[in-house]
């Protein structure tokens, strides 16, 4: 028992109590593959199967029943300790470290962060603007607000909706360049550091290289370049729709939609101040016209 990973044991208990991978995944708020991976890790450490995989669900083996009996009461003790610790945190004092992208901070989040801080004056907030996932396991941040269609398996959270992209141009540019074909326009494109984005891949497939007149390594910077009449661009609607000098030339492309998530580490989701903040931000973003809502 000394060499076993408690996280693996949590997954084992969830499957044993609910009788299926899908039931355990829903309870733990993780995906199906994470549960399977944790079970495989546990069985490898034990050197024995703990479940028989049957058509109607997962049934404990003899070794699995023995392990369950040894763990009886342990999960309840840990839950009581977590409740006790979080109960000390109900005053919503202390610090929260939030990480997000420059795009989201500039175009969406700051008013809500300011509102939450005003409602909770005993709270301290640290905002980390970083366009890559920080390691929430090592507490580089407590909460991440991220646009992503692929979420790290070790994080939990809720999908708020999605961010949309469309082609825009400035009024001054269109006045000088009244062309109708996209490929006939000058284009503002994402820089190399943004080459992983769906917008960049779309441009590679649809815009001739010789029509790209400027590359920008920031989505916020791309909006500024298009606003100055340097060319048309595939921009985030979140950033571009609020610019009076910009005109949307086509409807947003569904294939470029990017999910928006509020994420934290499983060990933090029960902490009162973390839960209060994530609930608050989720409610505000779901009510915002800036985020395209999707069914959860």
Describe the overall structure.
This protein is elongated. The chain has a 5-stranded mixed β-sheet with strand order 4-3-5-12-6, with helices on one face. A 5-stranded mixed β-sheet has the order 9-8-10-7-11, with helices on both faces. The protein has a two-stranded antiparallel sheet with strand order 1-2. The protein folds into 3 domains: 67 residues, Winged helix-like DNA-binding domain superfamily/Winged helix DNA-binding domain (Arc Repressor Mutant, subunit A), CATH 1.10.10; 99 residues, Periplasmic binding protein-like II (D-Maltodextrin-Binding Protein, domain 2, 3-Layer(aba) Sandwich); 92 residues, D-Maltodextrin-Binding Protein, domain 2 (3-Layer(aba) Sandwich). With 296 residues, the chain is α/β, with parallel strands linked by helices.
Q: What is the CATH H-level superfamily of the largest domain?
A: Periplasmic binding protein-like II
Report how far the terminal alpha carbons are from each other. Answer: 38 Å
pLDDT averaged residue by residue:
84
Largest sheet: 5 strands, mixed
CATH fold topology of the largest domain: D-Maltodextrin-Binding Protein, domain 2
Judged by helices, strands and strand pairing, the structural class is alpha/beta
Output the number of helix runs.
11
Beta-strand percent range: 15-25%
Q: Tell me the series of helices and strands, N- to C-terminal.
A: HHHEEHHEHEEEEHEHEHEHEEH
The beta-strand count equals: 12
* Spatial strand arrangement across the major sheet: 4-3-5-12-6
Q: Summed up, what is this model?
A:
The chain is of the alpha/beta class and 296 residues long.
